[in-house]
TrEMBL record:
Coiled coil start-end: none
Natural source organism: Myxococcus stipitatus (strain DSM 14675 / JCM 12634 / Mx s8)
Domain NAD-dependent epimerase/dehydratase: 4-208
InterPro entries registered for this protein in UniProt: Epimerase_deHydtase (IPR001509), NAD(P)-bd_dom_sf (IPR036291), NAD(P)-dependent_oxidoreduct (IPR051783)
Gene Ontology terms for molecular function: aldehyde dehydrogenase (NAD+) activity
Name assigned to this protein: NAD dependent epimerase/dehydratase family protein
GO CC entries: cytoplasm
Pfam families attached to this UniProt entry: Epimerase
C-alpha cells in the first residue's frame, strides 16, 4: 500500500520516508538524495502530479509553514489552510485516505500547568487564536474535516507537540536546544514546553498508514516541562550550566507588548514571548495501544539532539 508524504524534505518527512521504505512516495519540489520514488510538485497544485501518484492509497500531509510572528504571516496562513484543502481533494481523486499532521497547540495550550487536552478537547482558540500559526492550523483542521465529509474522504488528524531529535536540517524545531548551545538564551520565562522525539512520531505515522480503520484524531504526547526545567535538562546533557535568571510573567508580558510596538534587538518575537508564558499539556486516549506509540525517554531525545547539533556545527 503506497503512502505519499508531503513535506518530504522536512524533519518529520525524512524520518517517515525512511520507515515506510518500499511503500513510500515523496512529493518534492527538488529531488531528494534518498532512494525513494519521488513525484515533483507541491501540495497546493495536486492536479499537476496526480497522474504520477496512481496506486497511492494513503496521503500523509506533513508539509506546513511555521512562523511564530504576526509579521508577514499571510503567506503562511494561506499555505497551511489551502494546502490542507487541496490534499483532501487529492485524496478524493486518488481514492485514498488522508492523514493531516497538525499540532498539539490547536487544543493543548493553557494558562496553568495542571491541565491536559485529549482527543475530545475543544480548540484553544480563545488563547492561541491571537497567534497566526496556531490559528491557521485550527482553520486547516476545521475546513479540511468539513470538506472531507462532503467528499466522502476518510481523514484523521494527528497532533504532535514540538519535535526534537537528530536531523533537523532546517533548524526549525530544535531552536530552543540551540539557544543553550549557542549562548543565546537571554532569560527564562515562567511558562512551559511540550516535546517528543521525531523518530517516535514517524513510527506512529508509519503504523497508522497500515491500519485498516482510523479514529478521527490521534494525539502523540511526549514530555511536558517548565521552561526552567527544560533548559536545565538541555544544559545537563550538553555540559553547559544554565545560569540565566527567571523573569516574572508581568515583565515578559511588558516586553512582548513593547516589542509589538517597537522592535527590540536580541529578544524573541513578541509572539514567542507571549507563548513562553503559557503551558502546553495534552494526552492521548488511544495512541499508545492503537499506534504502538512508545515515546523514548526525554533525556535520550535531548542528548541525541545536542549531539547532532554539535556534529552539524562542527561540519560547518
Amino acid at each position: 500500500m503506497k503512502t505519499l508524504v508531503t513535506g518530504a524534505s522536512g524533519f518529520l518527512g525524512r524520518n517517515l520516508l525512511e520507515l515506510l521504505g518500499d511503500d513510500a512516495v515523496a512529493l518534492v519540489r527538488t529531488p531528494l538524495e534518498m532512494k525513494v520514488p519521488q513525484v515533483k510538485g507541491t501540495p497546493l497544485e495536486p492536479d499537476a502530479w496526480l497522474s504520477e501518484a496512481k496506486g497511492v492509497k494513503v496521503l500523509v500531509h506533513s508539509a506546513g509553514m511555521v512562523h511564530h510572528s504576526r509579521k508577514h504571516s499571510e503567506e503562511m496562513v494561506r499555505f497551511n489552510i489551502d494546502s490542507s484543502l487541496a490534499m483532501v481533494r487529492a485524496a478524493k481523486a486518488l481514492d485514498a485516505r488522508l492523514v493531516l499532521v497538525s499540532t498539539s497547540g490547536t487544543v493543548g495550550c493553557f494558562e496553568h500547568a495542571t491541565i491536559e487536552a485529549d482527543e475530545h478537547s475543544l480548540y484553544a482558540e480563545a488563547l492561541v487564536g491571537r497567534w497566526p500559526y496556531y490559528l491557521s492550523k485550527i482553520r486547516a483542521e476545521e475546513q479540511s474535516r468539513k470538506l472531507a465529509r462532503q467528499l466522502g474522504v476518510e481523514m484523521t488528524v494527528v497532533r504532535p507537540p514540538v519535535l526534537l531529535g537528530p536531523g533537523d536540517t532546517l533548524g526549525r524545531s530544535t531552536t530552543n536546544v540551540a539557544r543553550v548551545l549557542n549562548g543565546r538564551l537571554p532569560f527564562i520565562p515562567a511558562g512551559g514546553i511540550a516535546f517528543t522525539d521525531v523518530r517516535d512520531v514517524a513510527q506512529a505515522l508509519a503504523n497508522l498508514s497500515k491500519k485498516a480503520t482510523w479514529r478521527d484524531t490521534y494525539h502523540l504526547p511526549g514530555t511536558a516541562l517548565s521552561l526552567r526545567t527544560f533548559f536545565e535538562r538541555v544544559g545537563e546533557v550538553a555540559g553547559i550550566p544554565v545560569v540565566q535568571p527567571d523573569v516574572p510573567t508581568f515583565v515578559v508580558k511588558g516586553l512582548a507588548a513593547l516589542g509589538s510596538r517597537v522592535p527590540i534587538k536580541k529578544l524573541p518575537d513578541p509572539v514567542v514571548l507571549e507563548m513562553s508564558m503559557c503551558h502546553w499539556g495534552f494526552k492521548t486516549l488511544w495512541s499508545h495501544e492503537e499506534l504502538d506509540y512508545r515515546p523514548r525517554g526525554h533525556r535520550q531525545t535531548l542528548s541525541d539532539t545536542v549531539a547532532w547539533l554539535r556534529a552539524t556545527q562542527a561540519r560547518h
